[in-house]
Amino acid sequence: FKQGVAAHMKSGGKLQKVAENGELKNLEFGENGETFKLESYGAKIRVTRQMLINDDLGAFAKFFEEFGDMARRSANSIVYDLLQSKGEFENYKMSDGVALFDATNHKNYDASGAAESSTTITSARTKMRRQEEGGVKLNIAPKYLLVAPENETAAKQLITSESDPTASNSGVANVHRNTMDVIVDSELDASPWYLAANRRTI
C-alpha cells in the first residue's frame, strides 16, 4: 500500500544519419511515470444466531458470491470515476499538474459534447495519433470506443455499418467499419464517449 510509480521509458526519438567512418552519438533514455497507491475497500455483515437458525432460503451461502460481485462493481466504478473526474477523483491531476483530459496541454479533449459520428470519431482519432512525447509523434491508434448505454446503438451502427450511417447518401463508405471494439458501460454518463488504445490503456 505504499505509493508506487507506473514508469515507462521515454521515446528515444529518431536515429541520426552517420557518415562513412562517422562516430555514433550516445543516446540517453529517460522515463516518465504516474504515481499510484493501492487502497482498501470493504464491508461487513452482522450475523446473529437467530438469523442462522431461521435461514431457510440459504441466503448465507450467497453472501460470498454477492461480495465478489460487489468487489467487481467497485473496481469497475473506480476506473470510470477516474475517467470522468467524479467522486474522489473530481480534482485529480496527473504528474504534470494537469487534468487527465485537457484541450490545451494534453490535447485529448473536445468540450463541444458532440455525439459520436464519422466526423467526431475522425477528429478524436487524429488527436490520438498526434499525441507527442518529447517532440516525438507517438502515432497511437484507437482500439476501443467507450460509450454509455444511451449511445450503444449509434456506436455499434457506426462501427459495423458498411456505409456511413451519419451521411445522407447511404453509398458513402464507412471508413470506421470494424476498426474498433465498442465497450458499453452503465457507469458512464450519457453524454461523453471515449477512445482508448490497446497499449497502456485503462
Would you give an account of this structure?
The protein is an alpha+beta fold. Helix content is 24%, strand content 15%. It is built from four helices and seven strands. It has helices at 49-53, 63-84, 118-129, 152-160, and strands spanning 4-9, 31-36, 132-133, 136-137, 142-147, 181-184, 194-197. It has a three-stranded mixed beta sheet. The protein has a two-stranded antiparallel ribbon with strand order 1-2. It has a two-stranded antiparallel sheet with strand order 3-4. It is extended. The mean pLDDT is 83.
How many β-strand stretches? 7
Strand order of the largest sheet: 6-5-7
Shape: extended
How large is the radius of gyration?
Answer: 23 Å
Strand content: 5-15%
Q: Give the helices and strands as they follow along the chain.
A: EEHHHEEEHEE
Query: Which structural class fits the helix and strand makeup?
Result: alpha+beta
Largest sheet: 3 strands, mixed
Low-pLDDT residue spans = none
